[in-house]
Amino acid sequence: MTGRAVIRTAVSTIPLLALTLGTAAAADEPSARELATQAKDNLLDARSVHLKLTDRGTSPSAGGTLPTSMDLALDRDGDCAGTLRMGSNGGKVEIVKRGHEVWMKPDAAFWKSQVPGGQGEAVAELFGNRYIHGSTKDAMLKGMADTCDLNAFQKDIATPDSSGATPLTKGEETTVDGTKVIPLNGREDGHRTTLYVTSDSPHRLVSAAQKGDGTDLTLSFTDYDEPVPSRTPSPDDSVDVGKLKEELRSV
Q: Of 238, 248, 6, 232, which Cα lies nearest the Cα of 100?
């Protein structure tokens, strides 16, 4: 249940942004490069964002331990709320984090994929539809809580590309989820990359897609600078992480 591996999976889609979002050249109107640069700057400046990741590739997330989809609202303070769905029928996990407190609610499929033998079903029945609650000081929860780190995404995007920026071309204006966008198309290592940037200023990245050679990734960004939902699960809907540890020791 390690979140560092989870966040690396999502971040693995970001190099396409680091490759394509380079330094803008001067022009009378926004070029593809200028639009990409402004989108990058606005993403790096965001205090919070709603991120969605979808992996439809032919080699998704090995062994069900990494997500094929993420739907998270997260901010620079490390607060988040959302869902991660694992590959290979590894189930899904709902996660809420506020400050140093973490709530994690796996479904039955997740427990069965994580706990060996038939004990996963027993653990799923024991905890039912409740959250496992604890703090980020707990190693079992800290890993998953690392998924909530918007700073990690921004740091990866900000990493300069030593090989030079990938050439980009502007496509015809279209819409993504009702928002007018301009597609910016590029290619890197045999993969087709498209960045969808808002037509109107401030130019923000709405979606990024990468396809080719078994890869089919989509990463979207909405709700820039909107607060992360602050509601947390009630004590009646939660079980202390210590109870989970006791059960796993018996297993």
A: 232
Q: What is the CA radius of gyration of the chain?
A: 20
Q: Which residues contact 182 (CB under 8 A, 6 or more apart)?
A: 35, 170, 171, 173, 196, 197, 198, 199
Q: What letter represents residue 167's amino acid?
A: P
* CA gap 96, 206 in Å, rounded: 24
- CA 41, distance to chain mean position in Å, is 19
Tokens of 112: 């069965």
DSSP per residue, 119-187 = HHHHHHHHHTT-EEEEETTSHHHHHHHGGG-HHHHHHHHHS--TT-PPP-EE---EEETTEEEEEEEEE
Q: Where are the alpha helices (DSSP H) in the chain?
A: 3-11, 15-20, 32-45, 108-114, 119-127, 139-145, 150-158, 241-250
Q: Cα–chain-centroid distance for residue 59?
A: 18
Per-residue confidence in pLDDT tens, the chain, 251 aa:
444 444 444 444 444 455 455 444 444 578 999 999 999 999 999 999 999 998 887 654 444 456 788 999 999 999 999 999 987 778 899 999 999 999 999 999 988 888 877 788 888 888 888 999 999 988 888 887 888 889 988 888 887 654 456 789 999 999 999 999 999 999 877 889 999 999 999 999 999 999 888 788 899 999 999 999 999 999 999 999 988 888 777 65
Query: Across-strand partners of 98?
Result: 101
Closest CA relative to residue 57, chosen from 194, 218, 193, 192: 218
Q: Which residues contact 106 (CB under 8 A, 6 or more apart)?
A: 91, 92, 93, 114, 124, 132
